[in-house]
Amino acid sequence: MPKDKLKILGINFFNGDTNDVVENLKSGGLLVVPAAPALITIEKDHSYYRSLIEADIVIADSGYMALIWNLFHKQKINRISGLEFLKKFVDDEDVKATDKFLLVNPQPKEALANYNYLRSKGFNISEDSSYLAPFYKKNEVTDPALLAFVEERKPKYIIINLGGGTQEKLGAYLKKNLSYKPAIICTGAAIAFLTGEQASIPSWADKFYLGWFFRCIEKPKIYIPRYFKAFRLCLLMMQYGKQSPVILKN
Question: pLDDT tens-digit profile of 175-231?
Fold first, then answer.
């Protein structure tokens, strides 16, 4: 196991710093940012679990997971939130220097907000640098139209802004089927905290694992039940530790 990786639940989490993540992505690869509500599904949702296993970079976005792990293990995991990563990513001058971007968005409203935000940060991207994703079936996240769109444009960076559990499967699908190796970044709704589409999370709150609290304040009916279910992650980690909870068939 490389020194910058730490296996939790059979998943190789990146254990460096945020700058390292950005630098690694400049060479391409699939980045995923699994949150606790999605991680509790890995025993049953094998295609989702496989997308995490096969990703090039998995960052420990879940503060809950990091707290549990660091409380009971000598080797600590360095928690990097999707929000922290995105802030560092959009401020990187090398990243800004390319106009080869593609944003995969769920709705026109989000597409416009994300485009305007990146333009305000100094990115030279065109208005057609967005792909509106269709509704994907849970067990069949494939998109030949998107694949052809990417092959035609050859973006260096693809940022997928969809829900957890879907975007990772889509990213894995692209990674497997593309003829070249772009950076495929699955950070979901994290960009919405930067564009203002969701409640702003102060840096200090993100640092101290309190992003969940601000989400619950903004949309309690959605997030409170979601995070309540995520408590089951503690049982999974206590039971399996570094080991995989399932055996994936080829």
Answer: 999 999 999 999 987 888 787 655 566 665 556 555 555 565 666 666 566 656 767
CA 59 to each of CA 41, 86, 197: distance values in angstroms, whole numbers, following the listed order: 18, 12, 23
Taking alpha carbons only, the member of 189, 177, 183 closest to residue 141 is 177
DSSP state letters, the chain: --TTEEEETTEEEE-S-HHHHHHHHTT-EEEE---HHHHTTTTT-HHHHHHHHT-SEE----HHHHHHHHHH-SSPP----HHHHHHHHHT-HHHHT---EEEEESSHHHHHHHHHHHHHTT----TT-EEE--PPBTTB---HHHHHHHHHH--SEEEE-S-TTTHHHHHHHHHHH-SS--EEEE-TTHHHHHHTSS----HHHHHTT-HHHHHHHH-HHHHHHHHHHTTHHHHHHHHHTTS-SS----
Task: Tell whether the torsion through CA atoms of 230, 234, 194 and 148 is positive or negative.
Answer: negative
Token pair for residue 4? 């910058």
Q: Which structure tokens are listed for 154?
A: 């050859």
> Residues 200-207: contacts with CB within 8 Å, 24+ apart?
201/83, 206/81, 206/83, 206/84
Measured in degrees and rounded to the nearest 5, phi and psi for residue 175 equal -55, -40
Residue 239 above 80 pLDDT?
yes
Give the burial class of 98: count Cβ atoms within 10 A of its Cβ; 0-12 exposed, 13-18 middle, 19 or more buried. middle
Taking each helix axis from N to C end, the angle separating 82-90 and 18-25, rounded to the nearest 10 degrees, works out to 60
Considering only CA atoms, which of 88, 91, 99 is closest in space to residue 156? 99
